[in-house]
Specification:
The protein has 14 helices and 26 strands. By secondary structure, it is of the alpha+beta class. The protein folds into four domains: 89 residues, no CATH class; 128 residues, Immunoglobulin-like (Sandwich), CATH 2.60.40.150; 133 residues, Sandwich (Immunoglobulin-like), CATH 2.60.40; 241 residues, 3-Layer(aba) Sandwich (Rossmann fold), CATH 3.40.50. The strands form six sheets. Strands 17, 18, 21, 22, 24, 25 and 26 form a seven-stranded mixed β-sheet that branches. The chain has a four-stranded antiparallel β-sheet with strand order 4-1-8-7, covered by helices on one side. Helix 8 links the parallel strand 17 and strand 18. The protein is elongated, with a radius of gyration of 29 Å. It is found in: Cell membrane; Cytoplasm; Nucleus. One of its GO terms (biological process) is cellular response to calcium ion. Keywords: Calcium, Cell membrane, Cytoplasm, Membrane, Metal-binding, Nucleus, Repeat. Its main location: membrane.
């Protein structure tokens, strides 16, 4: 049975031609198939299908749709290589380019000075993900700034592109004149590769004749190029001064047109500029082809937007890569009009590549695929405020019909993280309880009562140890976090001498109340931020969790009692009550939302490559 025709380009897999349909189109009753990877009765697909374009949907009979829905697995098969394609990881990175046409003119004596701000809908709120440079005195801007976003096949990712006329240097958007906006999903842009849409005002009316053009390119090449550029003896263009030079870099598209990919800053009043080093994805500069010709144009900046052309050079990344700290690469800057008019014309100056380095910008998937192990530890709150586990109102109460919030949190987080640890042996610790036989309070005890081997086999082992220990301990207090944080930090510190990204430690703390040792906990977190370690805190029950939100450094930098600042944000706090009536996948997704970024940030700060990585 063939699929519905479509002009979208989809990578096709012949294994699907078994009577279930051919992948060609986007029609499946609005239901999305996660990353095109699924398996069930009658469908023998045991490996992730790489979808290079668009949202994949299928055309089936009603019977087949029913069967597929019934048996579709929303996690991939136990193939370790396939696991990284599941819902919690992005399918790929997409680079978005933005330009505008016929924008509203908000300036009286000149044209608008537009810039574009891109927002993403995150949990129902528009969050800014970046903004372009300002195009001075220009109603048809082509912005050099690109936006790289993670494309998740299994999610509806809403984007909003808003254009403003810059009036002040303020970063507050209400200080600038609004020129119009356009909203759509990332899937719409990816499916079309390039779209042109009218801009609208906040009241929904057209923003004049203004339109926005957005193009998308998948970034599958993780190489990054870093360039240091300079110029020498450039042409003098200003009447009462020298020149204010800047560079523009262009790559050639498939249709032969040249596309702006980067613009340097302006260096004022000089013929021998030295621009700041800059980095960009190699695929942005040359589509990953180091032999592909690129153009470098040099201009003299004018405040009125009428920038004077100085000259251009053509080269390749391969040629520029010959530059190093000890040897520079030079190109003549040629103005073809001057060259035709003047017989003795030599050049309009020299463009210099002071250094050119190509490195790899590793992603979370690169580290995981490269062999990084996520070392998972769970810490459970056994303080008296939870209530006796024999009481039905206790947060630790378990009956044959349902579990409790502690178990739900362990399952939600552990089931995902365990897929990234080869031996699946996890330490499970408790705090705030009195232990037999002397009934002393402990804040870092093994819940299997084996201090020399606190490891549990998989999430099931953690659950078994947890339920088994409940009758044998006395809930007490206080609620101290620092001992268990320092416990995991000691192991994480042993990974520091490693020269590759081999291990990253994750501590899940499940608690019901207010922290008693806040100063010590803050200090422990600040020290742990220097280590390959993240902390996830799930608050159960209905207590006031204001202090927990303080530890989550999303809105401010966390400081220890000594005043030392955390080098990075490693804490993610989530109150369980917000997810009581939501699918269990929602809790896991929220809890683990920041983890990939934290892993990448740590290894990048220390220039640690994956265990198994290819040279750039």
């Amino acid at each position: 049975m063939a699929g519905v025709g479509c002009d979208g380009r989809i990578q096709h897999d012949p294994r699907w031609e078994d009577g279930w349909g051919t992948v060609e189109s986007v029609v499946f009753g609005g239901d999305k198939i996660m990353n095109g990877a699924f398996w069930g009765r009658g469908v023998e697909i045991r490996k992730e299908i790489e979808v290079t374009y668009l949202e994949v949907v299928f055309s089936f009979s009603n019977r087949q749709v029913s069967a597929l829905k019934s048996y579709m697995a929303y996690t991939l098969t136990p193939d370790p290589a396939a696991l990284v394609g599941s819902a919690q990881c992005c399918v790929c990175k997409v680079e978005l380019s933005v330009s505008g046409q016929n924008l509203l003119d908000r300036d009286v004596t000149s044209k608008s000075d537009p810039f574009c701000v891109v927002f993403m809908d995150i949990n129902g709120k528009w969050s800014e993900i970046g903004r372009t440079e300002t195009a001075m005195n220009n109603l048809n801007p082509v912005f050099a700034k690109k936006f790289v976003v993670d494309y998740h096949f299994e999610e509806v990712q809403k984007l909003k592109f808003a254009l403003f006329d810059q009036d002040k240097s303020s970063k507050q958007l209400y200080e600038h004149d609004f020129l119009g906006e356009f909203s759509c999903t990332l899937g719409v842009i990816v499916s079309s590769k390039k779209i042109t849409r009218p801009l609208v005002l906040t009241n929904g009316k057209p923003a004049g004749k203004g339109t926005i053009l957005i193009s998308a390119q998948e970034i599958s090449d993780n190489r990054v190029i870093t360039l240091s550029m300079a110029g020498r003896k450039l042409d003098k263009k200003d009447l009462f001064g020298k020149s204010d030079p800047y560079l523009e870099f262009y790559k050639q598209e498939e249709d032969g047109k040249w596309m702006l990919v980067h613009r340097t800053e302006v260096i004022k009043n000089t013929l021998d500029p030295v621009w700041k080093p800059f980095s960009m994805p190699l695929v942005s500069l040359c589509n990953g082809d180091v032999e592909k010709t690129i153009k470098i144009l040099c201009y003299d900046y004018d405040n009125d937007g009428g920038h004077d052309f100085i000259g251009e050079s053509q080269t390749t990344v391969s040629k520029m890569s010959e530059a190093s700290n000890s040897m520079e690469v030079e190109f003549e800057c040629i103005n073809s009009k001057k060259q035709k008019k003047k017989k003795n014309y030599k050049n309009s100056g020299i463009i210099i590549v002071k250094s050119c380095k190509v490195t790899r910008d590793y992603s979370f998937l690169d580290y995981i695929l490269g062999g990084c192990q996520l070392m998972f530890t769970v810490g459970i709150d056994f303080t008296a405020s939870n209530g006796s586990p024999r009481d039905a109102s206790s947060l630790h109460y378990i009956n044959s019909m349902e579990s409790n919030e502690y178990l739900a949190a362990i399952w939600a987080v552990g089931q995902i993280i365990q897929d990234y640890d080869s031996d699946k042996m996890f330490p499970a610790l408790g705090f705030g309880a009195q232990l037999p036989p002397d009934w002393k309070v402990s804040h870092e005890f093994a819940i299997n009562f084996n201090p020399t081997n606190p490891f549990c086999t998989g999430v099931e082992g953690i659950v078994q140890a947890y339920t088994a220990c409940l009758p044998h301990i006395r809930f007490y207090g206080p609620t101290n976090f620092s001992p268990i944080i320092n416990h995991v930090a000691r192991f994480a510190s042993q990974a520091i001498p490693q020269k590759v990204a081999a291990q990253y430690f994750i501590l899940l703390i499940i608690t019901d109340g207010v922290i008693s040792d806040m100063d010590e906990t803050r200090h422990a977190i600040v020290q742990a931020a220097k280590l390959p370690m993240s902390i996830i805190i799930v608050g159960v029950g209905n207590a006031d969790f204001t202090a927990m939100e303080f530890l989550d450094g999303d809105s401010r930098v966390l400081r220890s009692y000594t005043g030392e600042e955390a080098t990075r944000d490693i804490v993610q706090f989530v109150p369980f009550r917000e997810f009581r009536n939501a699918p269990k996948e929602t809790l896991a997704k929220s809890v683990l939302a920041e983890l990939p970024q934290q892993v990448v940030q740590y290894f990048k700060q220390r220039n640690l490559p994956p265990v198994n990585s290819d040279p750039a």
